[in-house]
User: What shape does this take?
Amino acid sequence: MDLLITNARYTVTSNSANEILENVSIGITDGKISYIGPDKPGAKKVYDAAGKLIAPGLINSHTHLGMSLLRGWSEGVNLQGFLELVWAAEGAIMDEATCELGTELGALEALLSGTTTTMDMYLNPVATHRGAVRVGLRHIAGPIFFDFPGLDGLQWHQRIERAHQWKDELAKIGGPYIPTYLMPHSTYTDSPENLTEVAQIAKELGARIHLHVSETEAENLDIAQRYSKTPTEVCRDTGILDVPTIFGHGVHLSDSDMKIAASKGASVGHCPGSNLKLGSGLARFNDMRKAGIAVGLGTDSCASSNDLDMFSVMRMAAHVVALRQSPADVDLVSIVRAATIEAARAVGLDDRIGSIEIGKEADLIAIDLHAAHLTPVHNLNALLVFAAGRGDVTDVWVAGDQVVASRTSTKIDLAELINRVNQRVKALDPLR
Ligand SMILES: [Zn+2]
Assistant: This one.
């Protein structure tokens, strides 16, 4: 055994029985969980988890990490106003190196907050992936597609070329395993013809697809006027849903959309923080789950939700259910699972991560329970959703590699990164 995490006061497994174990040790061999049980001698390294809670690393199922550089840039606007402000800023600074820098910042914030995997849609994915892997994140990225040249200046045929090169690029960069994804932005920025082509390439490559779907009522109206369809129906009719697809947001899915998504195995990355902040609406978390859709939680970008805090997202997801339905409809276990195993299912990684079970990759976090706000423990799921925060995360492992130790990155220097970011964002000053 390479590592034994000993004597964890609690272990939240997110396994099929939702077991919470007390006072067990977890062994890791070759990056995978190889042992769960009483303390056992003989490991090469020991981590003392006395007084701590061990949980699966949280999974952020929809974000745009590079936009961490635009935290606080667009306030007091709805999605349309947001896009106008953000696209202007992105046009001014988002070259490849800057996308990489913003993604390093986002990846570091994610890991220090207990998030070990992110579904990241952003410009220049080779650069963003390089940056995120350097920081130690399990970073799902993919080539992006817009009809128009867009901020990366790529023509459509170049986007297609990049898609065909993507698997080789991933192999060159290395890092924790991720599935192959293609990421057309949405049905309102990509024509049905182009979506059809992306779906065809995804089939050829054995890739999955991530795109924004029904984030706002205005989007649904726009697509209805153009095509007399819902965004979900456009996805179905272009063949997008013939490959495993995860929708970003899905706030305004109709009952019929949910049936289509469930029957096609499409999943949703639910972002309550962004939806609340931009006034986009209250997604039907329980209805989507009841329809059979895998629903993961996500933050969206730091431009629309200002941070990458999955603990606050769990809390907001619960609040949205209480507000739309009632407090009695808040199933805390389902909220924790939406940040762990259900998010893993939503992004297509549930065979590898999302729960603490023998054979899974060791994406784990340690939470220090020795705190006034975490005492006493009557209900551990309530503690995770309503009381714990990202500052309580002390240590983080990705595939057995300790990427955060005592609240500090083992991979990059925070002060040096902050300095580089502050230098770079000065280029935005003329736009203020
Ligand atoms: Zn988004």
Remarks:
- The longest helix spans residues 156-173.
